[in-house]
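Note to self: keep these together.
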Amino acid sequence: MCLPPTAPRPPASSGRQVTNQGGGGGQSNEFSDNVFRIQDEGDTTKELAFQCSGIGTGTTVTLTPPTSDGTLATLDGTETFTNKEFTNPDITDQTLTDGATINWNCDSGSLATVTLGGNRTMAAPTNLNPGTYVLKVIQDATGSRTITWNSVFKWPGGTAPTLSTGNGDVDIITFVCDGTNLYGVASLDFS
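Structure:
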């Protein structure tokens, strides 16, 4: 339970120190402990905990709450953002391992690059979610490499693109995914 500044404070217990720093027009309270908790006054099993052990020595972290009601996002959870703008998001570009069968784990990123060292088969990607995926395909020094695509890859007119054949040529294939299939279009022959 969070007490108002004028209410009497509970006595400091072992490992906790409560200090009142008055001054100016306001009042602040410092709580020294590894974890500071605020409990719901109606149900004390509901708690909000602040853990300071991850903050660097000599560092002060200031949390400013939003001016309207809302939900805070976490780094460890799965969040849904609606009507939010992300400025310069960091998108992971994963390098796929070249081999007879090429695997793409979409949990590792929606942008992938593979350099073909032979004629290959592209397996059905794992961990697909609805969204956009981009695959950059690079021909090795030999060139003329091909990909046989798994049936989850869908193409205009039902025909997969013919990849560029030159040494070091780059093809960019963009997919829209419904969570099951990837609907692709190719921009070919960047050289």
